[in-house]
């Protein structure tokens, strides 16, 4: 021991080493004390579930991870219930809800989420100062017409001055809102209106080319032809009649400031995509793609006609997964196309696992499957 302090240099080195060791010991003891004072994962999950007004039996994919953020221990808690995904940040010291993010629309209206019950705002939301996100009960108290009126009033416009292209009820971070989009000859407007209070959650506007400057497409921004006329123009160009095709998309939109109809349809052998100028019925763009013939569908099997129901497709997926309908929460089940083959896209959750399937809509064959921890 005396040798450690035999010279001034050794004494300094020894003293520094002892001091450093004491600091490390103190830090280790402090970490142990702090960690022991934190709530465990079960308590963090319970805090999130209590805030969401759900029971453990109501949810799937429940998980919690401890993290250190800005010097504070927090739990990231995630789970699913009734078609809704919940993501919570919970203070690991006292169980307070730091933030919540709710994505999706509840399938069960009795379990609709109310962001007012804990007084915590979602930190991930981009809401202007005049938004009233704290008062958003699950029930809709504002009509679609009133929501449009609120947006138009904010924009300083009347309904006869605009063309409304979208007005629908949706969810944004757990708050029920109306998505509203409309146009004038010079501007495009996008609004989100709180469906409980008519407060403006978000707004944006974008200048459009003037009526006299429409580029190479010709015409102006006024929709002078109907959706039916636009479809007729596309079908005529394709050399087809309406009873020969299946129309999967036909909507009014903008492309480079020009108002157009986006039209998509199929035959048994081809897929067609058109953009039709809404003022002149001129073809702005066209594309077509060959589909597998009815007798030649490669590895997918079947043809492009839908012969099984959505329920049958879900049953095929559940059978493959070894699950019953009562054991899962279905969050997506829709008819779509994949490489020219009509399929059902199906997604569901069970016992912490996420399942995704593509089911051939003609014969129920499984085209693709995946399974991963939720």
Description:
The protein is of the alpha+beta class. It folds into 5 domains: 2-37; 41-111, Nuclear Transport Factor 2, Chain: A, CATH 3.10.450.40; 144-207, Roll (Nuclear Transport Factor 2, Chain: A); 227-290, Roll (Nuclear Transport Factor 2, Chain: A), CATH 3.10.450.40; 310-373, Nuclear Transport Factor 2, Chain: A. Helices cover 21% and strands 38% of the residues. The chain has helices at residues 8-37, 41-52, 144-155, 227-238, 310-321; strands spanning 60-69, 72-81, 84-91, 97-103, 163-172, 175-183, 187-194, 200-207, 246-255, 258-266, 270-277, 283-290, 329-338, 341-350, 353-360, 366-373. The chain has a 4-stranded antiparallel sheet with strand order 1-2-3-4, covered by helices on one side. It has a 4-stranded antiparallel sheet with strand order 5-6-7-8, with helices on one face. Strands 9-10-11-12 form a 4-stranded antiparallel sheet, covered by helices on one side. The chain is extended, with a radius of gyration of 29 Å. The relative contact order is 0.08.
